[in-house]
Amino acid sequence: MRLYQTYLFLASLAVIACTAPREASSSDSDEVRGSTRTRETLAKTPHVKLKRDRDTFIIDSRDTMLLDAIGQLYHWSIDNQIEKVYSVNQLGQTDTTRYRYHNPRLGRLTSVDFTNPIRPLLFYEDAQTVILLNRNLVEFRSINLLDFGFPAIDAIAYATNEGFWIYNSNAQKLIQIDRNGTVLFESTELSRVFNQAIRAEQLVANTQQIAMRTQKNRLLLFGPFGGYRSELLKGGTSLHLVKDRLVFYEGERWWTYLGPQIPIEPVLEKKGKELVSIRAEFTLYRRGNRYWRETTNL
Questions:
Q1: What is the pLDDT of residues 155-178, one digit of tens each?
Q2: pLDDT band for position 190 (50/70/90)?
Q3: Which of 53, 156, 224, 293 is most deeply buried (CB count within 10 A of its CB)?
Q4: Which residues contact 171 (CB under 8 A, 6 or more apart)?
Q5: Could you tell me which residues come within 8 angstroms of residue 199 by beta carbon, excluding any fewer than 6 positions away?
């Protein structure tokens, strides 16, 4: 039996919500209801049907909610399906279509990169395959990294030139390739730097730097052309590049890193709210079993 559930929209409540006045400070908020715990940029909730009540979502506890850079929400189900459940156009009530992508032949979906919200990037590590989608979650291109001669890619992220940063665990190198597989830049062999093999768990990139979270939750920083720079003394999980800084989760709170001459500082959280996720211009907060989106103050 498929693990994801059909969605139920409470249309009458949505109409009421659109006509009722709201304070400006909360007009941007999207709330997700459910008992949760943090997993990367994600909120998990109890095992119930996914449904929408105004801006509230309830999902299976084994599933996840994803937030992209322009505030759109996605449901990532345990059976590796991605569904857009809240789009930008829905804010203006011009688009109520539900967009989905599911490709069971590729196995487990390892990561999703929403750096470019109109071209989501999906990575299936077992199949060593990258899938590019359009804004409606229709497959735009499928790339088998084995065809490019890369047999052991741990992690992948968008590069700013529309190529990709990949970590090749066989070569122990961070490598930038274009969409045809041509190598543009690469790091030194990290096993020579650390005297041990390095396996990557997550990559994030912007125009200034690339950050890698290893499988042992070490945080490694690289320059814009892939040259290794340094390792943060504080490890962490759930890694993001937000504007001009690195943000990561460690020790049950979020931390921000601006540069080598600036101390790592905790992200100030709002009283009575738990910060669950940070994604470009938006943050996801929790109070009890309720979740909502706000503009990032970093």
A1: 999 998 779 999 999 999 999 999
A2: very high
A3: 156
A4: 189
A5: 154, 169, 214, 215
> Using CA atoms in the order 30, 296, 64, 254, what is the torsion angle rounded to 10 degrees?
-140
Identify the bridge partners of residue 285 per DSSP, sorted by sequence position: 275, 292
Pairwise pLDDT comparison (167 vs 258), residue with the higher score: 167
| Cross-strand bridge partners of residue 100 | 83
d(CA 214, CA 263): 22
SS (H, E, C) 215-261: CCCCEEEECCCCCEEEECCCCCEEEEEECCEEEEEECCEEEEECCCC
Phi and psi, residue 205, nearest 5°: -150, 150
Amino acid at 110: T
What does each C-alpha distance from 77 to 82, 84, 99, 168, 237 come to in angstroms? 7, 11, 14, 28, 21
Mean pLDDT of 237-242: 81
Asked if 278 and 240 count as a contact pair (C-beta separation under 8 A), the reply is: yes
- How far apart CA 170 and CA 224 sit, in angstroms, is 22
Q: Which two tokens stand for residue 51?
A: 């449904």
The secondary structure element, H or E, covering residue 274 is strand 274-279
Query: Cα 64 to chain center, whole Å?
Result: 11
Q: Report the distance separating Cα 87 and Cα 70, nearest Å.
A: 9
Rounded Cα–Cα distance for residues 77 and 272 (Å): 29
Cα(177)–Cα(255) distance, integer angstroms: 30
CB–CB of 292/285 below 8 Å?
Answer: yes
Where in 98-215 does DSSP place strands (E)? 99-101, 111-113, 121-124, 129-133, 139-144, 153-158, 164-168, 173-177, 183-186, 200-205, 210-214
199: β partners: none
Q: Which residue has the tokens 């030139």?
A: 161
Q: What percent of the chain has pLDDT over 90?
A: 41
